[in-house]
């Protein structure tokens, strides 16, 4: 048994506690640490962020500040910044009514940033939309939701952000045209730019967006015709262009959008082109909404191929002719059907009683005639969501109404 002298033992302890270890914990880049503090102080100056989180922010940080942890690195970097209360399950640093970005160039201090998220942060103090091209070339998600005091426009250099997968700017006052560079983002999967003040034409340069699944430009001020290149978005699942000023007809190339699950072109100025027949090729559709466009023509008999549709809006289209009975035969999954405010004639198809999931039906303000062919049991599904008024020639069986008294006053023929 070997016994160490006391001085040797103390010397060994000294060596172990003073020499640096080879596997010391990597720390956050000091510039990024300071920039995070400044961002937090801009968004919520009421909190003492430096006192609450005095240590390295990669070892102790508020939820929403995320670092990378490469095994071979001595310096860590910020890869996610998420601000604004979403829910108790995602307790990001909260914002205040006076939140601002005192120094927008701070975002360029995070060259490895992959996700930037602001929810309901900029509500009173005007803030300029950061130039996405200065955030960093590794950015994958650029998200601003419900920030009404956010102004500015998208950078022309957006095409340089080759890693971008999600571009979400919704509920802001961001304006201007969509730069052509958007069409250069080959990895883009979602472009949600709804409820803003964007204007101008839709960019023609869409052919490279082969990975795009969501294109939502609703509630803006866009105008002009839809480009032929829109048909090249072969992986698109959702196309929502509602509540704009788009005009003209529908490009025939749209028949290539066979994977669409939601198509919403309502409340625009499309006109004199009829309900497009190419819809029959979109067999995966669950939502089809064209209301508020003067399309004219008849309701085409295309429903055999659209059996999965759950909601259909064909209101205020200037439609004429009769309602195809095939709608009642094949639309077994539909829960909402709006055909109101057209010029439809003839009788309501008795086949509609086969629509077992239908819970809201609006046939009002047409020229329908004959007896409403619905039983008391069928009427009982609707509550107040069956509208047939302002069809002067349409009659309702009083015996049916009496057997289901709750519908009195809700189902009216005049």
What does this structure look like?
The strands form five sheets. The protein has a 14-stranded mixed β-sheet, with helices on one face. It is of the alpha/beta class and 414 residues long. It starts with 5 loop residues before the first helix and ends in an 11-residue tail after the last helix. It has helices at 6-18, 30-43, 49-52, 326-330, 376-379, 398-403; strands at residues 27-28, 65-67, 75-76, 78-83, 115-119, 127-128, 141-145, 150-151, 166-170, 175-176, 190-192, 197-200, 214-216, 221-224, 238-240, 245-248, 262-264, 269-270, 287-289, 311-313, 320-321, 336-338, 343-347, 360-362, 367-371, 386-387, 393-395. It is 11% helix and 21% strand. Mean pLDDT is 90; it is low at 6-22 and 404-410. The chain has a domain at 271-414: Alpha-Beta Horseshoe (Leucine-rich repeat, LRR (right-handed beta-alpha superhelix)), CATH 3.80.10.
Offer a concise description of the structure.
The protein is of the alpha/beta class and 414 residues long. The chain has helices at 6-18, 30-43, 49-52, 326-330, 376-379, 398-403; strands at 27-28, 65-67, 75-76, 78-83, 115-119, 127-128, 141-145, 150-151, 166-170, 175-176, 190-192, 197-200, 214-216, 221-224, 238-240, 245-248, 262-264, 269-270, 287-289, 311-313, 320-321, 336-338, 343-347, 360-362, 367-371, 386-387, 393-395. The chain contains 6 helices and 27 strands.
